[in-house]
Amino acid sequence: LTGQLMMHRVLVSTCLLGERVRHNGEHKQSHDSVLQRWLREGRVVPFCPEVAGGLPVPRPAAEIAEAAGGLSVLSGTGRVLDVNGRDVSAFFVAGAQQALEYARLESIQVAVLKEGSPSCGPSFTYDSTFTSRRVPGQGVTAALLRQAGIHVLNEFQLAEANRILTQLHQEGGS
Ligand code: SF4
Hints:
By secondary structure, the chain is α/β, with parallel strands linked by helices. It is 33% helix and 16% strand. It has six helices and eight strands; from the N terminus they run βαβαβαβαβββαβα. The chain has helices at residues 33-41, 49-52, 70-75, 89-105, 140-147, 158-170, and strands spanning 10-13, 44-47, 62-64, 80-82, 110-113, 124-126, 134-136, 151-154. Strands 2-1-5-8 form a four-stranded parallel beta sheet, with helices on both faces. A two-stranded antiparallel sheet has the order 3-4. A two-stranded antiparallel ribbon has the order 6-7. Helix 4 (89-105) packs parallel to helix 5 (140-147). The radius of gyration is 16 Å and the shape is globular. The model has no long low-confidence stretch (mean pLDDT 95). The structure holds iron/sulfur cluster. Iron/sulfur cluster binds at residues 13-15, 21-22, 48-50, 114, 117, 119-120.
């Protein structure tokens, strides 16, 4: 190193930053102080896998069929269906792959992703009946990033995400 420390960046779901990229044209801005500080520090790398994967805003709501989880979609056994029954799996997989490429490019080891989303959800999604019933499991992008060894947390775990960053900093970098 030439005295310049590497700054650890964090991949963050774009909708958490106030951008109106959700399926319904809305955002889910987080005002968490950790996130605000990361923004000031220039650590935040915004990413929306569904838009990156080629879906428009707005778009029909989509859920992982049979609540099979993001890994099933990545392996080709599961599907993501929109509320009209259209198979949109290819968009979700493309978005996840781009998220991983982007994360690798930026040497990202921590991601904070929007809970509940069929792409981003770190610990739950919905049961594919479009009736707001939650099921444990991860979205397609969350699953792919985790498989690659990236720490994936939700917007309610920013303190924990910050602890992980601090640990990485102590191991070298900032
Ligand atoms: Fe937000 Fe992720 Fe949905 Fe994009 S795909 S709107 S970033 S939850």
